[in-house]
C-alpha cells in the first residue's frame, strides 16, 4: 500500500547549492531530444513499479523540502499505527552510489516489523534535487551531510538508527561524526571508503593505472547517458549480478546466483534494471559529488579508517560486510589482519558496543543478495535501541 504526500519545512539559514536545471537544459540541446530515453516522469514510473513489489507493509512516498529549496525523495515504511510502535527509534536507510529508495524493496517489510523505516534518495540521486556540489572534498562531504541533517529536522525526527550501504555508509559515518547526538546506532553495510590505499599499492598492469586516472576525469555513469538509446541494454548487460537478487525469495545465495540464467527471472527483474537506468540517466549530480570524494582506482580521498577514533565513544557501531565484496579484497594485502580485529583496533577504546558481522557468501550488494540474512542481522543489531 502506497500513498503520495509532500511536506515542507520553514525557511532557515542554510548554504544553498545551485540547481542543475539550467545546465541540464543546455546539455540536452547538444543532442537530439530523444537521444536518452528517459525523463523525470519515466523515473517516477520506474520507482512506482519497483515499490509495488513491497506488499508486507504500508509505504508513504513524498518529497521533503529543505530550507534551501532542495527536495529529498522519502519513503516511510510502517506496519500499523500503534502509538508505541510509532514512538520507537526509526531506522533511516542511505543507499549507495547510483541507487535510490527502490533498491530497499526487499528490506522495507521485514525491518518495519520492528520499527518505522525511512529511506531517502540522497541529494543528487534518484528523484531528489540535482544540485552542483563543490569540488573540494571536505566541502562536498559537508554538503551531503548537511542535506541529511536538514532532512532529519524537516521530518521531525529526534534520534535515529542510521544504516548506510556503500557510499551511503561513507555518508552515514560522516553524519554520525558531525551529529552524534542524533544517532542512537550506526550500522555500516559494506561501506565504501573505509580502507586506506596502501602506500605500495599498484595495479597489476600499468595500463590499468593509466586508464583509471583517465576515467577519473569523468563522472562514473557518464557512459550510460552518452549511450543514449543503448543505455538500458548496457545496464541489463553489466548489472546482471544484481537482477537475480531481487527476483528470488530464497536465502540460498547459490540458488539466487543460478536464477540469473533463468530467462523468466531475467524478464521479471527488468523493473529493477529499468529503475537503475532511469536513476542514472538523469543529469549528473550526486555522482559528480562522489567523483570529487573518490581517488582513482576506487579509493576515497578522505578514507574512514584514520577518522574512526573521532566517533563519539558512546555510540554503538556495527559493521556488516560481504565476505566476497571487492571493497575489502581489492588492494588489501594477503597478510592483512582479520578485518573484524582491525576495525575494532582502529576504533580504539570505546564505551559503546562494537559488532562486526561477515556475510561470508555475499558480494557487495548484500542487502539484496541475501536479504533474509541481512534483514535478520539488522533486526538483531537494532534490538533494544
Written overview of the protein:
- It holds the Pfam family Abhydrolase_1.
- One of its GO terms (molecular function) is carboxylic ester hydrolase activity.
- This is AB hydrolase-1 domain-containing protein.
- Helix 5 packs across helix 6 and helix 9 (231-238) crosses helix 13 (270-280).
- The model is unreliable at 5-14, 21-33, 207-212, 250-256 and 263-267 (pLDDT under 50).
- The longest helix is centred in the middle third of the chain and has 19 residues, at 137-155.
- The chain has a single domain, classed as Alpha/Beta hydrolase fold, catalytic domain (Rossmann fold), CATH 3.40.50.
- The protein is built from 17 helices and 9 strands.
- It is globular, with a radius of gyration of 20 Å.
- It has 385 residues and is an alpha/beta fold.
- A 9-stranded mixed β-sheet has the order 1-2-3-5-4-6-7-8-9, sandwiched between helices.
- Helix content is 37%, strand content 15%.
Main beta sheet: strand number and arrangement? 9 strands, mixed
CATH topology assignment: Rossmann fold
Number of DSSP helical runs: 17
Mean pLDDT equals 85
Please trace the helix and strand order, writing H or E for each element. Answer: EHHEEHEHEHEHEHHHHHHHHEHEHH
Organism: Macrostomum lignano
GO molecular function: carboxylic ester hydrolase activity; lysophosphatidic acid acyltransferase activity
InterPro entries: AB_hydrolase_1, AB_hydrolase_fold
GO cellular component, one term: mitochondrion
Amino acid at each position: 500500500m502506497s500513498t503520495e504526500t509532500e511536506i515542507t519545512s520553514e525557511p532557515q539559514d542554510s548554504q544553498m547549492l545551485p540547481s542543475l536545471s539550467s545546465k541540464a537544459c543546455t546539455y540536452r540541446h547538444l543532442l537530439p531530444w530523444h537521444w536518452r530515453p528517459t525523463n523525470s516522469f519515466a523515473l517516477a514510473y520506474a520507482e512506482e513499479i519497483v515499490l509495488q513489489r513491497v506488499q508486507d507493509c504500508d509505504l508513504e512516498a513524498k518529497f521533503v523540502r529543505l530550507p534551501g529549496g532542495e527536495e529529498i525523495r522519502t519513503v516511510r515504511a510502517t506496519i500499523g499505527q500503534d502509538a508505541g510502535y510509532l514512538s520507537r527509534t526509526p531506522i533511516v536507510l542511505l543507499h549507495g552510489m547510483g541507487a535510490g529508495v527502490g533498491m530497499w524493496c526487499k528490506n522495507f517489510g521485514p525491518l518495519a516489523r520492528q520499527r518505522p523505516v525511512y529511506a531517502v534518495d540522497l541529494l543528487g540521486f534518484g528523484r531528489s534535487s540535482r544540485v552542483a556540489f563543490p569540488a573540494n572534498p571536505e566541502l562536498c562531504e559537508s554538503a551531503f551531510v548537511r542535506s541529511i541533517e536538514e532532512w532529519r529536522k524537516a521530518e521531525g525526527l529526534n534520534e535515529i538508527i542510521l544504516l548506510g550501504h556503500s557510499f551511503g555508509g561513507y555518508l552515514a559515518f560522516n553524519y554520525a561524526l558531525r551529529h552524534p547526538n542524533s544517532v542512537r546506532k550506526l550500522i555500516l553495510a559494506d561501506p565504501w571508503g573505509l580502507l586506506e590505499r596502501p602506500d605500495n599499492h599498484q595495479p597489476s598492469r600499468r595500463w590499468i593505472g593509466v586508464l583509471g586516472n583517465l576515467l577519473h576525469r569523468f563522472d562514473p555513469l557518464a557512459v550510460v547517458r552518452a549511450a543514449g538509446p543503448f543505455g538500458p541494454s548496457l545496464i541489463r548487460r553489466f548489472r546482471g549480478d544484481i537482477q537475480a537478487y531481487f527476483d528470488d525469495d530464497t536465502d540460498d545465495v547459490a540458488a539466487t546466483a543460478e536464477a540469473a540464467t533463468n530467462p523468466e527471472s531475467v524478464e521479471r527483474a527488468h523493473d529493477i534494471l529499468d529503475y537503475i537506468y532511469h536513476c542514472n540517466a538523469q543529469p549528473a549530480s550526486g555522482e559528480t559529488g562522489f567523483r570529487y570524494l573518490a581517488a582513482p582506482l576506487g579509493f576515497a580521498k578522505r578514507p574512514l579508517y584514520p577518522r574512526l577514533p573521532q566517533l563519539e565513544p558512546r555510540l554503538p557501531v556495527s559493521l556488516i560486510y560481504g565476505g566476497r565484496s571487492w571493497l575489502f579484497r581489492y588492494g588489501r594485502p594477503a597478510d592483512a589482519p582479520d578485518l573484524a580485529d582491525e576495525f575494532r583496533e582502529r576504533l580504539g577504546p570505546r564505551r559503546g558496543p562494537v559488532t562486526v558481522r561477515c556475510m561470508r557468501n555475499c558480494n557487495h550488494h548484500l542487502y539484496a543478495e541475501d536479504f533474509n540474512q541481512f534483514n535478520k542481522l539488522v533486526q538483531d543489531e537494532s534490538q533494544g535501541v
